[in-house]
Automatic annotation (TrEMBL):
Gene Ontology cellular-component annotations: plasma membrane
Residues of the Major facilitator superfamily (MFS) profile domain: 8-410
Protein name, as recorded: MFS transporter
Record key words, sorted: Membrane, Transmembrane, Transmembrane helix
Organism: Candidatus Aveggerthella stercoripullorum
Broad class of where this protein is predominantly found: membrane
Domain of life of the source: Bacteria
Length: 415
C-alpha cells in the first residue's frame, strides 16, 4: 500500500459534501411558495405540483447520470448539470405562467440536482470503497442539511431583492459551484483504485461480484429492500411535505395561530437537521455493526416516531411533536443513506451509479403513497391521527420485512 499514501482522498469527500449541501436546497422549495402565490394567486396544489415534478426529474437525472457514467467523465457529467441548473434557475426568474416554472424549476433544476448528486456521490465513493457506508453518510448529510443551512440566506435574499432576482443569484451560484466541483472531482487512478478495492474486499465492505442493473433487479435482495425502503420513505415524505400543518393542528389547541406557525416551522427545521444526522448515523452503524442492525434500528426509530406523533395528537403536546419529528428525521435520513450503502455492499462498486439511480427511483412511489395517505385522512377526518396509525403499521411491516433482506451470495437470480 506504499503508493496509496501518495494520494489524499479526503478532499474528494469534502467537495462532494459541499456539492450535496447546495443541491439539498431543492428540498427548500417551500421558501418560494408564499412569494409566488402572492404574485400570481396560484393555489397550493399548483405550487406543490412544482415540487412533485422536481422530485420526478430528480430521479430521472439520477438515471441519466448512471447511463452517462459509462460514456463520459465525471467532469463532463457535472458540467452538464451545471448548465441545466443555471438555465433552470435563470429561466424561473422570468416566470409568468405556471407551465413555465413547471419546466424551468421542476424539469431543469430537478434534473440538474439528480445528475450532479448521483455523479458527485458515485465519483467520491470510488475513493472510499473500504468505508462505503460512513463516507456516503457523511456526503449525503450535506443534502440533508441543505435547506436548513441555506434556507435562512435565501429567505434574506427573498425579502431584500424579491424572488425573481433571488432565482438569478441562485443561477450564478449553482453554476459556479458545480463547475468548480466538475474541475476538482475525478475518478481515482486505476492502480490506486485496485489497491482500495482489495482492502475493501478484505474487510468485506463491498460485494464479491459487481452486479449489472439487469442482474441486480433479478435478485430477491433488490425487491425486498425496495419494499422495505418504500414503507419507511412513504411516512417520511408524508410528514416532511405536511410538517408545518401537521404540527399546527396540535399546537393551535394550546396557543394562538401565529405563535403556532412559528413553532411549527421550527419543528419542521428539526426534521431537516436530524435528517442529515440520520444519514451520518446510519453510516457509522452500518460500518461498525453491519447492515442487519442498521435496518433494525431504522425501522424501530420509525415506529417510535409514529408512536410519538400519535401521542402528540391525543395529548396536544409540543414536546412530543418535536420528539416525533426528530425521530422521523433520523429514520428518514438513515433509510435514504442506506440506499447508497446497500448499492456498494450488496451489488458492488463497478456499476454503482446506475444501480443507485434505480434504487433512488423508489422516491417516486413513496412520494405518491405517503403524502396521498396523509392528505386523504386529513381531508376525511380533519386530523392526521389516522395517517400516523397507518404509518405505524408500515413501520411494523418494515421491521418484519427487513429480516428477509439478505446480501446476494454470488449473483444468483431470484425466481
Amino acid at each position: 500500500m506504499a503508493e496509496a499514501k501518495k494520494y489524499h482522498r479526503l478532499p474528494y469527500g469534502v467537495v462532494a459534501f459541499i456539492l450535496q449541501l447546495f443541491l439539498g436546497l431543492i428540498y427548500g422549495w417551500s421558501l418560494f411558495i408564499a412569494p409566488l402565490e402572492a404574485d400570481f394567486g396560484w393555489a397550493r396544489s399548483d405550487t406543490s405540483l412544482i415540487f412533485t415534478i422536481s422530485m420526478i426529474f430528480f430521479c430521472v437525472g439520477n438515471l441519466v447520470a448512471g447511463w452517462l457514467s459509462k460514456r463520459l467523465s465525471p467532469r463532463a457529467i457535472i458540467f452538464i448539470a451545471a448548465v441545466a441548473a443555471g438555465v433552470g434557475f435563470l429561466a424561473s426568474s422570468f416566470t409568468q405562467v405556471l407551465p413555465w416554472i413547471f419546466v424551468s424549476y421542476g424539469v431543469f433544476c430537478g434534473f440538474a440536482v439528480g445528475v450532479a448528486g448521483n455523479c458527485s456521490l458515485a465519483t467520491a465513493l470510488k475513493w472510499f470503497p473500504d468505508r462505503q457506508a460512513i463516507a456516503s453518510g457523511c456526503m449525503l448529510m450535506g443534502m440533508g442539511f441543505g435547506s436548513a443551512v441555506l434556507g435562512p440566506p435565501v429567505n434574506t435574499l427573498l425579502a431584500a431583492i424579491g424572488w425573481r432576482t433571488t432565482f438569478q443569484v441562485l443561477a450564478v451560484v449553482f453554476f459556479v459551484i458545480l463547475v468548480i466541483g466538475a474541475v476538482v472531482l475525478h475518478n481515482p487512478p486505476e492502480e490506486y483504485s485496485k489497491q482500495l478495492l482489495a482492502k475493501a474486499h478484505e474487510r468485506d465492505t463491498v460485494a464479491g461480484k459487481d452486479f449489472t442493473l439487469p442482474e441486480m433487479i433479478r435478485t430477491k435482495a433488490f425487491w425486498l429492500y425496495l419494499c422495505w425502503i418504500i414503507l419507511i420513505s412513504s411516512g417520511g415524505l408524508a410528514l416532511i411535505s405536511n410538517a408545518v400543518p401537521a404540527a399546527q393542528d396540535i399546537l393551535v389547541l394550546s396557543m394562538d395561530a401565529s405563535a403556532a406557525l412559528a413553532v411549527a416551522t421550527s419543528a419542521m427545521g428539526a426534521i431537516s437537521v436530524f435528517n442529515g444526522l440520520g444519514k451520518l448515523g446510519l453510516g457509522l452503524i452500518w460500518d461498525k455493526l453491519g447492515y442487519r442492525r442498521a435496518f433494525i434500528i431504522i425501522s424501530s426509530v420509525y415506529a417510535i416516531s409514529m408512536i410519538l406523533c400519535i401521542a402528540a395528537v391525543t395529548s396536544s403536546s409540543l414536546p412530543l411533536v418535536v420528539a416525533g419529528f426528530i425521530c422521523l428525521g433520523l429514520a428518514y435520513g438513515g433509510v435514504i443513506s442506506s440506499s447508497s450503502a446497500i448499492t456498494g455492499s450488496f451489488f458492488g462498486p463497478k456499476n454503482y451509479s446506475m444501480n443507485y439511480a434505480c434504487i433512488t427511483c423508489q422516491m417516486i412511489i413513496a412520494s405518491a403513497i405517503g403524502p396521498t395517505i396523509a392528505g386523504m385522512f386529513k381531508t376525511a377526518s380533519g386530523s392526521y391521527l389516522s395517517a400516523y396509525i397507518v404509518f405505524l403499521v408500515f413501520a411494523v411491516l418494515s421491521f418484519l420485512l427487513q429480516f428477509l433482506v439478505k446480501r446476494p451470495d454470488d449473483g444468483t437470480s431470484a425466481k
